[in-house]
Each structure stands twice: as C-alpha cells, then as structure tokens.
C-alpha cells in the first residue's frame, strides 16, 4: 500500500511522526513509554538508527532521524513499529492497566484492517518529510521540543522527560542524540 509520505532517499535526514490508532493516549503510562525508549535504544545500537531529536507525546512519536550507511531508514521504522506494537500489547496485559478499553480499541482497529490479525497499535505508515535545509531542520527541531509546551504538559521544554530537549539544554536525556 502506498502512502502520501515516504522515504525516498535512505541517506537523508527525516522528520518522522508515527501515531497510535485513534490518537489514543497510550504513553501516559510509564511502562508503555519505556517500551518505546528501550526499542529506540536498540535501533540505535543494532539497526543503524541515528537520532538527532525526538519527543514521545501521549499519542504519537516525533523524531528527526537518519540511518547509518548500509542501513535503510524505512526498514528500521517498519521493524520498530512492528516490534513495539507487539511489545506494547503484551505489556498492557502484564501491568495493572486500569484502562481496560485499550485492548478493545486496538482489537477493533485490527478487525477493520486486513493486514492485522489480533491487535493494531500504530496507524498505517508514518509521516516523513526530508529535511532539505538547515532552516527546515531548525524549524522541525523547535516544533518537536516545543510540542509538550504547546500541549500544556510542561512550561519548559527541557523539563519533559520523553524528549531530546534536555540533551539540547546540556543535560543527559533518556536517549543519546547526534546534535544538528
């Protein structure tokens, strides 16, 4: 299936957004956010993912990323989404999740999509835009880091744990980043 946005040059730097089905606020639970963090760390160490900036919001993930030489960014993102989808569904079953309706929503999303069997966590595809200029990179970097402020979650970008804003402010973030 073709999507409006795609990775056309595997060597470019991209602004990518991937979203939970129905914009469900899944990542308000620490355990589910940790699945994403650990998976991104794995993709960095084992799959050639280079992260320049990132922000995990309650219902979606923004990143500025590229792939190391001889790796395909589209494959990394595909594998990341496939793994995290399964791991998050498993984790929901293991934790004391009070939102029992989550699995029902993910099950319903799978039933209306021929590619999924039991659960569907992520929306199909992902939004990707090649960052072709330094000005565009700066614009997307500011957008990513200011997203928690605009959403009313924090007053200062570097106070949001699930973001690279702390790295850019001189602190130690949850993920290593390559500075733009």
**Residue windows where pLDDT falls under 50 for at least 5 positions:** none
Classified by CATH, the class is: Alpha Beta
Strand content: 5-15%
What is the H-and-E element order? EHEEHHEHH
Structural class, by secondary structure, is alpha+beta
Average pLDDT across residues? 92
**Total count of helical runs of at least 4 residues:** 5
Rg from Cα: 16 Å
Task: Find the count of extended strands (DSSP E, 2+ residues).
Answer: 4
CATH superfamily: Transposase IS200-like
Assembly type of the chains comes to single chain
Count of spatially separate domains: 1
- Bulk shape: globular
Briefly note the CATH topology name: Alpha-Beta Plaits
Helical fraction equals 25-40%
* Biggest β-sheet strands, sense, barrel: 4 strands, antiparallel
* First and last CA, distance: 32 Å
Strands of the biggest beta sheet: in what spatial order? 2-3-1-4
Explain what this protein looks like in three dimensions:
- It is a single chain.
- With 180 residues, this protein is an alpha+beta fold.
- It has a single domain (14-169), classed as 2-Layer Sandwich (Alpha-Beta Plaits), CATH 3.30.70.1290.
- The chain is 39% helix and 14% strand.
- It has five helices and four strands.
- The chain has a four-stranded antiparallel beta sheet with strand order 2-3-1-4, with helices on both faces.
- A hairpin with a 3-residue loop joins β2 and β3 (60-67).
- The protein starts with 13 loop residues before the first strand and ends in a 12-residue tail after the last helix.
- The relative contact order is 0.21.
């Amino acid at each position: 299936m073709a999507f409006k946005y795609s990775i056309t040059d595997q060597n470019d730097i991209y602004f990518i957004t991937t979203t939970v089905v129905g914009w469900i606020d899944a990542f308000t639970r620490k355990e589910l956010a940790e699945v994403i963090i650990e998976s991104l760390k794995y993709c960095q160490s084992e799959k050639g993912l280079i992260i320049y900036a990132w922000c995990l919001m309650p219902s979606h993930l923004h990143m500025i990323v590229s792939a190391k030489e001889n790796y395909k960014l589209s494959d990394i993102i595909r594998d990341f989404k496939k793994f995290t989808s399964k791991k998050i569904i498993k984790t929901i079953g293991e934790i004391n999740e009070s939102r029992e309706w989550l699995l029902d929503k993910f099950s319903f999303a799978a039933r209306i999509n021929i590619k999924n069997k039991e659960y569907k966590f992520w929306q199909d595809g992902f939004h990707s835009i090649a960052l072709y200029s330094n000005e565009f990179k700066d614009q997307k970097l500011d957008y990513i880091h200011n997203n928690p402020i605009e959403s009313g979650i924090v007053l200062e970008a570097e106070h949001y744990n699930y973001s690279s804003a702390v790295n850019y402010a001189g602190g130690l973030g949850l993920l290593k980043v390559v500075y733009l």
